Amino acid sequence: MTWPPWFVPKKWSRSQREDEEGFQQRVICKLVDLSLFCLLCSSSVHGKYLKY
Known about the structure:
Layout: H1 16-51
């Protein structure tokens, strides 16, 4: 992953690789949360239809 040219991190205390790995982990966590949320919503809707 490469930073866009207009993006300048405020603190460059850590190495670039650590920042990129942390960013990827946050994105993966958000995707996992989103998929779990979608699964819960779809399963609850599916359960409502199954009751009828």
